[in-house]
Write a structure and sequence with these properties.
The protein is mainly alpha-helical. The chain is built from three helices and no strands. The chain has helices at about 10-25, 30-45, 65-85.
């Protein structure tokens, strides 16, 4: 991927948060900013076609109850927190 240089103005408080996160994750501040740009661009992307059609479904293998959902969300949150602390698996 070819990278292009650009200038961005940011609040001091945002830059401080970026610096902290970059140090915690052991990546460059530029990488943090690139990831942020990528995420917001994807979040606002308009797709030409739907992700799935009305005829398609996801087979979850049967009913999913609230305890299974809670467990999956809890595991996902714990994993994200681990990554945010910079813990290596």
């Amino acid at each position: 991927m070819a990278l292009k240089r650009t200038n961005v103005y940011a609040d001091d408080s945002d830059l401080f948060l970026i610096k902290e996160a970059a140090a915690r994750l052991r990546v460059s501040e530029a990488e943090m900013i690139r990831e942020g740009i990528h995420r917001i661009a994807l979040a606002h992307r308009v797709w030409a076609e739907p992700f799935i059609s009305d005829e398609e479904t996801f087979d979850l293998g049967g009913p999913v109850d609230k305890d299974e959902i809670r467990s999956a969300v809890t595991r996902g949150h714990a994993e994200r927190e681990r990554r945010n602390r910079g813990d290596v698996a």
